[in-house]
Each structure stands twice: as structure tokens, then as C-alpha cells.
Amino acid sequence: MKNKNHLRPPVQTKRGPFCIKTILAFILLFSGVLFLAGCAPKLWLPKASPDYAVEEGWAIVKTDSLTLFTKIKPYSANSSRLSSDYFAIFVRVKNTSGKTVALRREAFALHTSEQLLYPLPLQTVAGSLDRRGFMDPFSETMFEEKPQDWEERERALQEQYLRLADNFFGFGNILPGGSKEGWLFFDLISGNQNAVSLELPGGSVEFIRD
Predict the structure, then answer these.
(1) Contact present, 125 and 186 (Cβ < 8 Å)
(2) Looking at the domain that runs over 42-209, which CATH code has it been given?
(3) Of 163, 94, 88, which is closest to residue 130 (Cα–Cα)?
(4) pLDDT tens digit string along 116-151?
(5) From the CB of residue 120, how many other CB atoms can be counted at a distance below 10 Å?
(6) CA pair distance 164, 139, nearest whole angstrom
(7) Is the pLDDT of residue 80 over 80?
(8) pTM value?
(9) For the chain, which end, N or C, has fewer CB atoms within 10 Å of the first or last residue's CB respectively?
(10) How would you label 38-73 residue by residue, b for 16+ Cβ within 10 Å and e otherwise?
């Protein structure tokens, strides 16, 4: 007797539409990952040089009397407006000599292909803290807020001032064996810059955006 199995219709499955949906999902997921990768901010890293050491994103400059560590990274200790309003660089300086060393603001400068920028004073940067609703006689909510709301806002603003002052790099004298650290704030550089040079006591450090 002939085998009748060959007369049976092939088993129908529903995998076709499922496979198409799965492939489309993977394509969308992969496209999303590529999009996010393209949108991710590029990091500023010190360029290798025989004039200074590079270690874990830090540039380390040594002189006869100072060791300087510097790194470009977003400032996040205060209002997010500071990181978008200024170009911030973290600096740590240690006095390795047996005498007092004076650090002047003019000894630090940021060079780009189009700009020469100097560190801004604390008062200038503090003026950019979020003041929405503070001491604004024309504020739309002025007559809706209670006195305790104003007091709380004023207290929050003072806390932001103190936090900024604590994180701000303080110029002046460094005693033997002492150190200073904090943030330098510069005006924003143009967005198409992919290389900057930080001038500091004892030399300069070149950073590239990668």
C-alpha cells in the first residue's frame, strides 16, 4: 500500500508574522542604541604628552615646587544651570616644596583656536545660580506665595551659594606641604571645538574631545 503521508498538506505555522515582528523589533532596538550612542556627550581627555603624565583621565603636571592634577568633567554639585552656562575644569594643586607658593588667577588660562579665557570670579558664577522666584517683584507668583515660602527659597539659595563656595578653587598662598583643590569656571567655548589647552603654573595641558 502506498504511503499516504505524502498526501498530507504541510503543517501550517504562524511563525512567519512572528519572525517579521521580531526582526523589526531588533532593528528598532539596534537603531535606538545607535541613536543614543550618537547623542551621548563626548568626553574631554588629556592628550598624551612627554610634558605631563596621564592617568585615568587626569593630567598630572610636576614642577620644582608643585604637583598639579587637572581634569575636565561636568560640574554637578549645584544647579544644573552651572554645567550648561560655564566650561568647568577641576584642579588639585599640592605644594611639594619647603616654601610658601602663591597661586594667581592670571596663571591659569584656557586656549582654543578662537578664544583666550581666564577663570571667572566666584561672584560671577554665583550670579548664575537658579534664582527663579527669588527677590523678583514682578514674579507672577509673588502674591500667591506665603512668607514661609520666600524664607525657604532664600534658605535654599544660601545653601547653593555655600556649596558653590566650598567647591570653588581658591587662589592665594599654599603653605609648604599644603594643597588646594576645586573648580575653575570659564565662559563657554564654541560648540565645534574638539581641542583646548589649559595653561597653568609650570606648563600647559592639551585636552581633546573623544
Answers:
(1) no
(2) 2.60.40
(3) 163
(4) 999 999 999 988 886 544 444 445 554 455 667 778
(5) 19
(6) 25
(7) no
(8) 0.72
(9) N
(10) eeeeeebbbeeeeebeeeeebbebeeebbebbbbbe
